[in-house]
Fold these 3 entries.
Entry 1:
Amino acid sequence: MYSLDINFLNDRPGAKNQGGGEKKNRPSLPVGGMTPIYVGVAVAVFFPALLGTALWFVQAQSANVDEKIAVLEQENQQLEAKIGDIKQIRAQTESIKSENQALVSVFDQIKPWSAMLQVVRDRIPATVRIESIKQTPPETVAQGQSAPNRAGGIEISGTARSFNDVNDFLLSLKQSPFFKSAEGKIVTAQLADSPIPQGLPAGVTVKVPSVVKYTIISKLSDVPASELMRELEQKGTVGLVARIRSLQRTGVIQK
């Protein structure tokens, strides 16, 4: 028969450790196991520091940019004020130039009466007599439009020996650069009795031939006086010629 040999001493705590038994296993760290921890700590410290440094740098740059923007805005305001002054001066200059040009254009349209009378005197036939000469005003135009002829025209009345003499007088005036050839015309021309000469002896009668009473009108030319310098000099209008030449030297009137 079998026998059971049971040793209850081996079942006591710590019985296996006596006499060189098994030792209880303890956890241990491998060599170099702390490196990842150090790396993690370094990363955790380095990146926040780097982020803080970058944030400080960005804030500093932003403050610098804001300061430059403030300076530039101030300079821009100063430049805008100066530009406004320049625009105002330019507007005033253009207004003055426009006024001067308007005055010059009116001045350049002047036809002296002395020159007009000399033209009529040079071109009247020997058989034509003048009783009156008067200037006619320029045509009225609508508001905002310029007058076609600021100088107006001329009206001549008198007597002539015949109708042909009146026609010759009109054609002669049309050839003058001081008048518009297309605007000259005979308004009236009719036969009339000649006035009886004064101082005849009593009882003496004289038969006087009839004459033609006429009225001629013509418009003054639009040609500027600056383009009629030679004709004006020939008519003795030296004062106007001298003023025009002075304006040409200053550039107000183009040559």
Entry 2:
Amino acid sequence: MAPNDSADTNGTAAPGTKGAVAGRRKAVRYIVPVAVAGVAAATIGLVPALASSGDPDLPKITAQELIEKIAASDTQQLSGTVKISTDLGIPSLGGLAGSFVPDGAGDEGSASADPQSKLTELASGTHTLRVAADGPDKQRVSILDNASEYSLIHNGDQVWAYDSKSNAVYHAEGRGEGDAGKGEKRAAPDGVPTTPKALAEQVLKAADGTTSVTVDGTAQVAGRDAYRLVVKPEQSGSTIGSVTVAVDAENGVPLKFTLQPSSGGKAAIDAGFTSVDFEKPDASLFDFTPPKGAEVTEADEAEGHGKAEAEKAKGDLGAFEGLDGMDGMNVIGKGWNSIAEFKTPGGAALPSKASGDEVPAEAQQFLDALGDKVTGKFGSGTVFKTRLVNALMTDDGRVYVGAVTKDALVDAANNAG
């Protein structure tokens, strides 16, 4: 492809207590709207952030050339500090989070260090992380708090997570390729960050003919000279205004990721390196031994407990048969305006006090903060809003979700067969 000032890319848009039995019965009906909010959280992953201090004078480069530079980057060793600020417009869950934890999951000695739940904390606020990587089989991410630290370590077929605050350890063990027949190799759990490059490449998988990609000047991030790659939807109706990736001018590694919503205001995600070193990290960073007195939960044990609780809940919820999956998911539209359509298990509608449901105060407050009542040819429903991902849940149990505006969701529901 001849060099030019912009390029289109092809692919797909990148776009989580113990209690009374009645509480557990009702909890299932809150899962869909809360899970919708979690979709927005899932867009974060590990993407490095802005620390700009000037615009260096660099040789001209086209968008196509810069994309190729990212793809050709073979940098697999780095360490540094990352700052992530996230404002997705999701109200604080507060005490509500416990309403969705299976019985026993919050007890002493439970899987409180499980990365699947811990990493959702990155969905709001500002966090400082220390990161290190030495190839595809060795990564470490530590979330720093005022008086504690949460670390996730991947070393070969071993995955460890440690929460110093609760002195809890989570352990997942896989099997290498030479152990065929003894079990499948276990990769890091979903949501475990690996390298900034992998995440930036996901963003560049924009849908066919719907994306503008340009180079918009230069920046300096964590003391490194970088080009600014700007990705924008060419379609109207998306909640995503632009994605800017600062790319290291020397090695092609993404150093900064900023996602600006189409509604304006502060960035929804502004994450990146404040310091970075591309030398080989110390091997000891990827070694881990559970501290004395720590409660260790094995992944298989945690998964077994979760499945048992799910089966128990299903037994108590006769109206919610089919909890194993959503019925007939369909994708409406393409590119940045893609909308997923599916039915809730058993056609469950949104719980409300008006319909006689027992709705915990925290749950009702959360749902009210997110939801707008809407009507149309489809009937009536509620639109749950974040700054990036919105979802319409109709009163007859259909769900439409995507990184699109409320009007786009209503139109999709009106036109659905």
Entry 3:
Amino acid sequence: MKRPERDWVREAVERLRREATRSADTHLLRLDLPAFPDIAFYFKDEAAHPTGSLKHRLARSLFLYALCNGRLREGQAVVDASSGSTAISEAWFARMLGLPFTAVMPACTAPRKIADVQALGGTCDLVDDPNDVHARAAWHAANGACHLDQFALAERATDWRGNNNIAESILRQMALEPDPEPAWIVCGAGTGGTSATIGRYLRYQGLSTRLCVAEPTGGAFAEGWRTRNPSVRASRGTVIEGIGRPRVEPGFLFDIVDAVVEVDDVESIAGAWWLEGWLGRRYGGSSGTNLAACLHIAADMQARGERGSIVSLLCDRGERYAQTLFDPKWLQARGLDPKAAHALLPPIPC
């Protein structure tokens, strides 16, 4: 018996597959710092995706997961809670599939991110308290929308065994490097999906590479990981969007993380500025957090006389933060002065 609703799902999945086939892999950039002669740094430029962040991979996976689990049908509204980058990617895929999309976002989200969602045809439902985004997204779902639910589903929607996930891509690109098996991979945690994918894949491939989560100081993941308590709350807020969650999200897996490095906001912002000086283009604050954590890991390796490679991520485009992290007046109004932290970073290599 012919089932028209299944025909639409089949075509939607094929559209997502074709998009993935058209998308070239993102670059892995090598950085050599004279201060660490025995350690090579690599940064995977996930901002090169069509929607400008590593969340492009996640958004595609979330749509596939919803389609293949029978949760998403033709013409249905789609909703998710997001501080910006995931919402932008989800709006892009929703437009591709001809579906209305609403992003539930904290009102303090960078204005450029809100504008990017709207430019892709999405609607932004802004809430004053960031802790309310989950409940608001659930309200939309109760009124008929398909909740993509990145925070609950990211770690299971991504195929961690391969299929060009971010871990497989990194290790394939490292194959011809002098130290092809990284000593460490460093990433931030928003949903926990990226750290779950990387940590699982390292074990699946039998590698000795360790996984470090870079976290804003006082973030819930850091305290939760130390105590193995999924109920802890963040002890401090952060201006670094996408990470530093106020609570431990269900997709964060404690046991596959080998270390958590906490980074103050001014260090993260200084790191983002430093990356602009190195690469000539801007990246967001979480990329600066990753850079700072990599330098902490490298210093520890150097103190132990270890050599090898460290791989991390450039998470999203810095143009989205022109009115926040790269705006001196915005920083001054919040008492943030990253100049001293920037001065402590290694000289930018020529």
